[in-house]
Amino acid sequence: MASAENIGKVIAIVTSALAQGPVGLVVSALGGTTDALISIGRTAAAGNEAFRTTLRQLETRHLTAAEALLPTTEAQAAIQPWLTARFTELALLADGIFALSELSPRTLDRLMSYGELLSSRLVVAAFQARGIAAVWADSRQLIRTNSRFGIAQVDEEITQRQVTYFQQENPASLWVAPGFIAADAEGHTTTLGRGGSDYTAAILAAALGAGKLEIWTDVSGMLTADPRLVRSARPIPRISYEEAMELSHFGAKVLYAPTVQPVRRRGIPLWIKNTFAPQDYGTLVEVAPPRSIGVVRGLSSISHLALLNLEGSGMVGVPGFAARLFAALARARLNVVLITQSSSEHSICVGVSEGDVPAAQEVVNEEFAGEIAAGRLEPLRPETGLAIVALVGDNMRNHPGISGRLFSALGHNGVNIRAIAQGASERNISTVIRADDVRKAINVLHEEFFEATHKQVNLFILGPGNVGGKLLGQLTQQQGYLRDKLGLDLRVVAIANSRHCLVSDEGGLDLRTWPEDLDKASKLSLAELTQLIIDKNLRNSIFVDVTANPAAAGQYAPLLARSVAVVACNKIAASADYASYRQLKQLAQDFNTKYLFETNVGAALPVIGTLGDLTRSGDVVRRMQAVLSGTLNFVFNNYDGTRPFAEVVAQAQAEGYTEPDPRLDLNGSDVARKILILAREAGEKLEMSDVANESFLPASCLEGDVAAFYKQLAVHEAHFRSLYDAAAGQGKRLKFVAQYADGQASVGLQQIAPGHDLYELRGKDNVVLFYTDRYPEQPLVVKGAGAGAVVTASGVFADIIRASNI
C-alpha cells in the first residue's frame, strides 16, 4: 500500500479472487503514513509547529493518490470532500495536542487510526470506479477491545456478535475494512499494535468462519532466515501454526505474532503471499503441514534485548520470588521475552526490551527493597547489547543432538551464549548472544541446519609474495572443485602486504585481478588489519600468515581469542619463548579454533601432523634426526668443489630455495627453529637458547649486507672446500642435520656415511626420522620436497582445509 501503483496491484489480486467467491479485504495505511502521524503528534506535543508541514505533505500525498487511482473527475470529486474533511479533523486534533502540549495514549490511537481510515476509503472508491461493488466496513464497529490504548486486547465474544450482525445487515461480495484499529466499550478508538492490520484480518476471518486467510506482503512467504542477514535464505512452503507463531514471536517480520492465534483456533489456513509476485507459492500455515526433510523449520532473532538478573542467597528455598518478580513487571506493563532460572534457585534471569530496562529496574528494586537492604538480594542487574537467536521446528521434538549441534556451531565461531531457554514442547531453542554476533550466528546456524553440503570459509591473507602468490593461484584453481566436491566455499576477504590492503565488500575478492587491485588499495597496519578481521566478525574466519614478520606473529593471540583460526607459514610464533608458544596453543583450545603451522617444518611434508598423530595415539618420541633445510640440502648436494660455494648458494637463491637473505638459511638458525618446534610438539619444554647450533659459516660471513655475505663466501672458499674434501675422502656426504634426543636438541653439519637414511637425500628434499617406542630401531620416515614456493603454498592450502573443519 505504498503507492497508487501498488494499490492497483491489490485491486487486480482481489478482482481475481472474487471469481472464487466473496472476499473480505483488510488494508493497512499508505506506506509511511503511520510513522508520519506519530511524528505529527509528538512534534505538536513538543510545541513545534513543524507538524503542520508534515500534515500538509500527508494530505497532498493522499489527494495525489486519489487522482492516480480514480480514472474520472466524477470519481475524484466524490472522494475529495471526504478526504478534505478527514484532514480538517486531523488538523484540529493536532492543534489540540499542540495547545495542551500533551499526547496521551488514547489521543495517539485516535491520531494513528486516520492512516487506515483514509487508505480503506480510497480503495473502496477505486473499486467502485471500476464497476466493482464494495462495502466499507468500519473496524471500530466490528472489533471490540479493552481500553489499553496502543495494544488493546480483543473481546472475542462481543466481536463475534458485532461481525455477525454487520454481515447480516450488509450482504456483499466485497468488504473493505481498515486494519489496525478497533474501539472500546465507550466507542473510543483503539489500536492493535504495529502490524495490527494482519491481526485485524485474522480476527475477522475467525469471526466470519472464512475458508482461508491470505496475508499479502512484499516477500514470498516466510523464509528460513532473515534475507537481510542470510543471502541464501529460502522460502518455507508449508509450516504449522505453532512454528509460525514461534518464528513471528522471535522476529520474523513477515507475520505479526498475534495474527496466528484467531485462525489457529478455527483451523483456518493462513497463506502468506507476495503482492509483487502473486504467482509465487508463498507460505501456507496450517494445522498439519507435511513433515519437513530437516529437523529445523526456520531461524529468527530479536535484537535490542536486555537480560535482568535477580540474584541472592535469600532466594534459595524461599517460594514466591518468581511470582513477585513477574507481578512487578506486569504492573509496569513490561513484556518478558525469555525466562531462565538456575537449578540452585540462586538467580532468576528474564529477557526484556532494552528500552524497558529503566522502568524494570525501578519496579523490581522497589518490590524487593526489603531483601536488598538486608543483603539477601542484590539490586537488579541489567545486561544490555544482547539479542535472541531462536531455532524453530516441530521435528526437533524428541530428536537428540539438536542443541549439541547448535552449541558446537556457535562455539566454533566464538559466539558466546549468555542464556538458554527451551520449552517442554521442544519446538524452540532460544539462545541469548551479543547483538554484534547476530549476523554471524544466524549464518552459521543456517549453514549447519539448512546447507549441509555448503560451508562458507572467509580467508584473510597476509603476505601475497612468492609463496602467498602461489597460494592465491592454487585457491583460484581449486575454488570450483572445493565447492562442488567438498561443499566448501573458500572466500578471500582481504589480501594485505606491507604497502596495501585489499578488502572485499561482499562475496569475496576477485582472485583473477587481485595483483592490480591490491596496488590501488589503501594501506592498513597490522593492528588495523587485526581489528578489521574482528570488526567484520565473519563466520569461519581464518587468518593466513605467509610472511616471516615477527610483528605479524604478534597478532595471533587477539585473533585466536576471537575464535579466528590461524594458519601460519611464519615460524616466529611457534619458535618464540615457550610461554608464548603455549599461550597460542591454549588460546586455540580455549576458544575452540585452530592454530596450524604445518609448513613451519618441511614445507608441505606432513611432519608436524605425523608427530601429532604419534603423540595423540600414545606413542612416545625418543629421538628425531632430520634434514630440515631444503636450501642447505640443495647447496651441499650441488657443491662438489668444481664450482665456488658462493655460486651454488647464488643458484639456490635464484631458484627460490632461500630467504631473500640467504644467511637466514645458511647460519642454521632456521633449522634450529624447526627442530625446536618439533621438540615442543613432541612435549619438550625447550627454548631457542637450548638448541645447540654448530655453524659451519665463518663469523665474517654473517657481517654486513647480502652483497658482503657473498664476497665473504668467496674469500672463504678454501674453508668450504676443506669441509667437502674431508667428507668425500671417507666416501661420505655433507648434510646439515637437526637432532633431538633425551631432551636435547642440536643442529650442525655432519658427514653421513653410505647406507644411512640421510645419505641418498637429493635436491631440495627434507627428511625426518622418528624413533619412538613403536619405532625403536627402524624409524618412521617422512621424506620429500622441503622447499620451494609451490610446495610450501600447497602446505598452507592443506592447513586451510584442515582449519575449515572439513
Q: What Rg is obtained from the alpha carbons, in whole angstroms?
A: 37 Å
Total beta strand runs: 27
Distance between the termini: 48 Å
**In percent, how helical is the residue content?**
40-55%
Strand order of the largest sheet: 11-12-10-13-15-14
Mean pLDDT: 92
Fraction in beta strands: 15-25%
Largest sheet: 6 strands, antiparallel
| Structural class by helix and strand composition | alpha/beta
Q: Can you tell me the residue ranges where pLDDT is under 50 for at least 5 consecutive residues?
A: none
Number of helices: 29
Shape: elongated
Would you kindly provide a written description of the structure presented here, covering whatever features stand out?
Helices cover 42% and strands 19% of the residues. It is an alpha/beta fold and 806 residues long. α2 packs antiparallel against α3 and α4 (73-100) packs antiparallel against α5 (105-129). The longest helix is centred in the first third of the chain and has 28 residues, at 73-100. It is elongated. The two termini are 48 Å apart.
Main attributes?
about 40% helix, about 800 residues, 29 helices, six-stranded mixed beta sheet, alpha/beta, 27 strands
